[in-house]
Automatic annotation (TrEMBL):
Organism whose genome encodes this protein: Gulo gulo
Organism lineage: Eukaryota, Metazoa, Chordata, Craniata, Vertebrata
First and last residue of the signal peptide: none
Keyword Lipid metabolism found: no
Keywords: GTPase activation
Name of protein: Rho-GAP domain-containing protein
Example of a GO MF term: GTPase activator activity
Any single Gene Ontology cellular-component annotation: cytoplasm
Domain of life of the source: Eukaryota
A Gene Ontology biological process term: regulation of small GTPase mediated signal transduction
C-alpha cells in the first residue's frame, strides 16, 4: 500500500466535509476528497519535519520546568516554616492559659 493510498483512506477520518444541509454535486465532493487526500499525503510524507521538536525548544521547556520546580520547593519550605511557627505559637499560648488556670 502506497502513502497515497493510506492518505486516501485516512483523509475522510481527519477532514470531515460539512455541507450544512446543502446538496453538493459529485464533482465538488471529488475535488474536496482529492484535496484532503493530498494534504494527508503531505502530512505523511513530511512527518519527520512536522512532528520533531527542535532541541532548543526541548532545552527551554526543561529549563522552565526546573525553575518552576525550584520555585515550588521554596514556596513549600516557606509554608512549612509558617505552619511550624504557628503551631509553636499556639502551643505556647495554650501552655500559658493552662498555667494561668492552675494558679
Amino acid at each position: 500500500m502506497t502513502t497515497m493510498n493510506v492518505a486516501m483512506v485516512m483523509a475522510p477520518n481527519l477532514f470531515m466535509c460539512h455541507t450544512l444541509g446543502l446538496k453538493s454535486n459529485e464533482q465538488r465532493e471529488f475535488v474536496m476528497a482529492a484535496g484532503t487526500a493530498n494534504i494527508m499525503h503531505l502530512l505523511i510524507k513530511c512527518q519527520q519535519v512536522l512532528w520533531t521538536i527542535p532541541k532548543f525548544i526541548v532545552n527551554q521547556v526543561r529549563k522552565q520546568n526546573s525553575e518552576n520546580h525550584r520555585k515550588d520547593k521554596k514556596a513549600m519550605k516557606k509554608l512549612l516554616k509558617k505552619m511550624a511557627y504557628d503551631r509553636e505559637k499556639y502551643e505556647k499560648q495554650d501552655k500559658n492559659t493552662s498555667d494561668v488556670r492552675k494558679t
